[in-house]
Structures are given as structure tokens and as C-alpha cells.
């Protein structure tokens, strides 16, 4: 366990994820924090036993995290990835299966895997020094857990800035009972990219945090950071979006990718004539929300963050980092542009959707920026949980309020004005209905992610089930869930750079008396 005397400098060197176990035993104004459920507590094993499914099988995979070269159009860049491909090869299992993944770390630094969106056992959640020791270079660690809920998920490290390289991959959990009224099941992974293109995630973070000292920097020295058209510090933060309530992000990325490919070398999704495609859209970016549309077509949204919603037809949707949406499209005969507009950043990623009766290589029909991007956009109000996943109405047993705070200059992002490691844990108990209210008092939007739980958005029983939600500047947003997965869990902003700066907190289950 980390020492209670661990310093803030040491914490940042570990990356956003250390120091938490110590915090769970620190003093409070009312005395001492009650004992909480940590790794090795029988309650974690008991919760896993309740997830057991006699029909489930063991699905085994091996992964290798290592440095690699990736071809981005005409450019070959060095990065890190899983098994030499970006994004990593999707893992597909069925709900109720036991997933075993042996990860070998051939990186030059420690790593982990976080299984984003899954209500899995706490000691497999992949947060170093909270749910597991970090995996050292040259070591292999095997993750083993029951996958409880069908849907579209993904996995990535929870160490420092590793996510802003190529270390991410989809995890698709299939429903054995789902009929599947579609002909094609395709994952669409969105990403903002700067690694190896004149900057690294670490150099970009250093430039961002260097603004605290107001050093004199020109745009060429700022890595991937957006400085606008001028060279003065006052000209920064030119990424603007009304949809996101103002500032659209901290960084202007050189490239935006769909399934690892830039617009100059677009990925192609093929669909039989008259067929339907299920597109599982994952935003694996670190600082960019995307507005997604298929030229010449509408999309029917069927799932949000893995859980089904009453189908709703829209022209476009906005997806924040960490969010996932499943949509059904029925492309007309032809070749059509699938566009992910980097919201507020004057850039985009694109792919091609082609029916198989059209020759490969045929140019897409219509403009490269389809009008659907300005059509009816999905809002959270449009999302209604289906009856089988709706959270029953119930008064909350415990409520916690979290203020989202921070500034660009100096570069500081926090919950309740404190960086990670300086909070007492948010305490909850097994069986409670928990309400969390996020109040965004910063000028930036934040995609907030809760580990190990799927919450209901809002307090109405029809609210959609999600695990990541965008909180806009000036917004108060409440979520509710039932405390059924004991352990210690992270709550954090899924902007990789905000997290690294400390915009995170721990939610801990109290031990039963």
C-alpha cells in the first residue's frame, strides 16, 4: 500500500491513481474514516459469486502492450499499442462468461488495464495502487472476472497519459438472447492523435502545466496545444463550441482517426444492399468530443454506454470521451461519408460506408461535411431506458455533491477545489440508493466517469443507464445508482489531461458493522 506520507510530487509521478488506499484511513473532522472494503475483503468475492452464470464459459486471451509503429496515412509514427495494431483487436464474449486476459507489459514503464463501463469485481478494475499493484515492465498479470452486462465497452490503461497513445481496444459483450435485426455489426472507434507528430502526451502535458508559470512560449513550443492565431498566452483557448457550453477542449490535435485511420486513408464499412448495420461508436479520445453523422442518412440510436434505450431517430449525435452509442443505419445503394466532426476544433475524422453492390474505391456521394451534422442532434433528454434496464424509483439513502472546478491558467483541475489525494473518500454502503450531483463551476465541459457502476441519468425512472456523462459549464446534473458492487472506486473526469492533473476522487463502500 502507498505510504500515508506520499507526496503530491510522487503522486503525479505515479499518474492519477495512486495515494488512495492511504486516504481511506485518514482522519476526518468527525473522527476517523470508518473502515472501508478494500482488496481481499470477502465482500468482493461474494459480489462476484452473485454474478455467476451456469451457462457462462471461460474465454481466454493474451495481450501484449509494447512500443510499435503505426501507419497514419503517409506517415509512420512510433507509439504504444496492444499486439501491434491501433486500435487493439476487439475482444468479443457473451454476458455471463468469465473473461481471462493475460497482459504482458513490454512497455518501458508500468501499466494496467481498466475495463471501462463494466460492473466487474473491484480487484480487477485496473487502477494502480487502488485495486491492484502496477504491472511492471517485463511482468504478466492475468485479469479474470465475470462479464455481467451485454453492450459496447472498451479497455485502456489507467496509468498517467498512456491512453493518449494507441493503448485502447473495444470489448463487445454479446447478449445470448438478442436476435440482432441487422446484417453488419461494426465497431467505430474515434480518437484524437498527436503522439509522434511533433509531440508526445508527456510533452503536451508539460506545456499545459508550464502555463502556470506564465513562461514565454511560441506556438511551435506548445506541442499540440491550441494557441489560436497569435503567439501570446492570451490568445489560447480558441476551441469553442456552443454545444459544449464554451471551451471545447485544451488541445488542437494534428489528426483525428476512425478505427486507426486518418481522413487521407479512410476505413471502409461494407453493408449488403438493403441491409442494416449496427455501428458501435466509441470515443477513445483524450480531449475531443465528436459530432457524428452519416451523409445522406439518419441514425437510430438503440444503446447508450452499453445499455438499451427506446430507439430514437436523429441526424447526428455528440459523444464525449469515454461515452459509447450504438446506432442502426440502413444505407442506400452507394458510398457514403461517415464523419466525426471534432466539436469546436475545426477538424474531423471520416470513414466510408459502402453497399457491396458498388465498386470499391467509388467516391462517396455528397459533401465531405454532410448537412446531417447540423440536423437534429441527440440530447440526453431523448434517451429513455427500456423497461428491462430502468432503475426503479426510490428515495436516495445517501447523497453526495461534487463541484467540478479548475482553470486553464494556471492549469488546475479538481473536484471540490482539491486535487486527487487530498479528499476523504465518498462513503456509501451496500444496498443503498446513491445520488451524486455534479455542479460544474468551471468554464470547461467535463465527461465524468464512475467506475464499477452504471448509473441512471437524472432522478426520473425513465432516465437512461450510463457510466459516463458530459457536464457542461454552469450545469447541475444528478445521477443515481444502487450500491451493489463493493470496493473502492474511482470517479473522475475522462479528459486524460484533467485526470492527470488530479480531477478525481474515490468512492468507497463502508464495511458492515
If you had to describe this structure to a student in words, what would you say it looks like?
The protein is mostly beta strands. It has three domains: 8-25 and 388-509, Cupredoxins -  blue copper proteins (Immunoglobulin-like), CATH 2.60.40.420; 42-178, Immunoglobulin-like (Sandwich), CATH 2.60.40; 181-383, Immunoglobulin-like (Sandwich), CATH 2.60.40.420. It is 7% helix and 38% strand. The chain contains five helices and 34 strands. The protein has helices spanning 8-14, 20-23, 42-50, 201-210, 496-500; strands at 27-28, 31-32, 58-72, 75-82, 91-94, 98-105, 114-116, 140-146, 151-156, 169-174, 184-193, 240-241, 246-247, 255-258, 268-271, 277-283, 290-294, 299-304, 307-314, 317-319, 324-329, 335-342, 347-355, 398-407, 412-415, 426-428, 433-440, 446-450, 455-457, 465-466, 468-471, 476-482, 488-493, 504-509. The strands form eight sheets. Strands 14-11-16-21-18-19 form a six-stranded mixed β-sheet, with no helix packed on it. It is globular. The relative contact order is 0.15. The model is unreliable at 1-30 and 212-237 (pLDDT under 50).
Unreliable sequence segments:
1-30, 212-237
Distance between the termini: 24 Å
Structural class, from helix and strand content? mainly beta
Reported for the largest beta sheet, the result is: 6 strands, mixed
Quaternary organisation: single chain
Q: Looking at CATH, which topology of the largest domain would you report?
A: Immunoglobulin-like
**Which of globular, elongated, flat, extended, rod-shaped describes the shape?**
globular
| Gross CATH architecture of the largest domain | Sandwich
Strand line-up of the largest beta sheet: 14-11-16-21-18-19
Q: Averaging pLDDT over every residue, what do you get?
A: 89
Radius of gyration, taken over Cα atoms and rounded to an integer in Å: 22 Å
Approximately how much beta-strand content do the residues carry? Answer: 35-45%
- Specify the number of helices: 5
Amino acid at each position: 500500500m502507498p505510504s500515508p506520507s506520499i507526496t503530491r510530487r510522487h503522486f503525479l509521478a505515479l499518474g492519477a491513481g495512486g495515494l488512495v488506499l492511504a486516504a481511506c484511513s485518514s482522519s476526518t473532522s468527525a473522527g476517523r474514516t470508518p473502515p472501508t472494503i478494500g482488496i481481499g475483503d470477502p465482500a468482493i468475492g461474494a459480489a462476484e459469486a452473485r454474478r455467476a452464470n451456469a451457462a457462462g464459459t471461460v474465454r481466454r486471451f493474451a495481450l501484449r502492450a509494447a512500443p510499435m509503429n503505426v501507419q497514419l496515412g503517409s506517415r509512420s509514427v512510433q507509439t504504444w499499442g496492444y499486439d501491434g495494431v491501433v486500435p487493439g483487436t476487439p475482444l468479443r464474449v457473451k454476458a455471463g462468461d468469465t473473461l481471462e486476459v493475460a497482459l504482458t507489459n513490454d512497455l518501458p514503464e508500468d501499466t494496467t488495464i481498466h475495463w471501462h463501463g463494466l460492473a466487474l469485481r473491484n480487484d480487477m478494475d485496473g487502477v494502480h495502487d487502488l485495486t491492484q499493484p502496477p504491472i511492471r515492465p517485463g511482468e504478466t498479470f492475468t485479469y479474470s472476472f465475470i462479464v455481467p452486462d451485454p453492450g459496447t465497452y472498451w479497455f485502456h490503461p489507467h496509468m498517467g497519459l498512456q491512453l493518449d497513445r494507441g493503448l485502447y481496444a473495444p470489448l463487445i459483450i454479446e447478449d445470448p438472447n438478442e436476435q440482432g435485426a441487422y446484417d453488419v455489426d461494426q465497431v467505430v472507434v474515434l480518437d484524437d492523435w498527436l503522439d509522434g507528430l511533433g509531440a508526445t502526451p508527456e510533452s503536451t502535458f508539460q506545456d499545459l502545466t508550464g502555463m502556470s508559470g506564465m513562461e514565454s512560449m511560441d506556438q511551435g513550443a506548445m506541442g499540440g496545444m491550441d494557441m489560436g492565431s497569435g503567439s501570446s498566452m492570451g490568445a489560447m483557448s480558441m476551441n469553442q463550441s456552443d454545444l459544449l457550453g464554451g471551451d471545447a477542449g485544451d488541445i488542437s490535435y494534428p489528426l483525428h482517426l476512425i478505427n486507426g485511420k486518418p481522413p487521407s486513408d479512410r476505413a471502409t464499412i461494407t453493408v449488403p444492399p438493403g441491409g442494416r448495420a449496427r455501428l458501435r461508436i466509441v470515443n477513445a479520445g483524450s480531449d475531443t468530443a465528436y459530432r457524428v453523422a452519416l451523409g445522406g442518412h439518419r441514425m437510430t440510436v438503440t444503446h447508450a454506454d452499453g445499455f438499451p434505450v427506446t430507439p430514437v431517430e436523429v441526424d447526428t449525435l455528440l459523444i464525449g470521451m469515454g461515452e459509447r452509442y450504438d446506432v442502426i443505419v440502413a444505407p442506400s445503394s452507394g458510398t457514403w461519408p461517415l464523419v466525426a466532426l471534432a466539436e469546436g476544433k475545426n477538424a474531423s475524422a471520416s470513414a466510408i460506408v459502402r453497399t457491396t453492390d458498388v465498386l470499391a474505391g467509388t467516391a462517396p456521394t455528397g459533401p465531405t461535411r454532410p448537412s446531417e451534422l447540423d440536423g437534429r442532434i441527440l440530447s440526453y433528454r431523448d434517451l429513455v431506458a427500456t423497461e428491462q434496464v430502468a432503475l426503479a424509483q426510490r428515495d436516495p439513502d445517501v447523497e453526495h455533491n461534487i463541484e467540478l472546478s479548475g482553470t486553464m491558467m494556471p492549469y488546475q483541475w479538481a473536484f471540490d477545489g482539491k486535487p486527487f489525494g487530498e479528499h476523504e473518500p465518498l462513503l456509501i454502503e451496500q444496498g443503498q440508493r446513491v445520488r451524486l450531483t455534479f455542479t460544474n463551476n468551471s468554464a470547461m465541459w467535463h465527461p465524468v466517469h464512475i467506475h464499477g457502476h452504471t448509473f441512471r441519468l437524472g432522478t426520473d425512472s425513465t432516465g437512461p443507464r450510463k457510466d459516463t456523462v458530459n457536464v457542461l459549464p454552469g450545469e447541475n446534473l444528478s445521477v443515481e445508482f444502487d450500491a451493489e458492487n463493493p470496493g473502492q472506486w474511482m470517479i473522475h473526469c475522462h479528459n486524460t489531461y484533467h485526470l492527470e492533473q488530479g480531477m478525481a476522487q474515490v468512492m468507497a463502500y463502508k464495511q458492515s458493522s
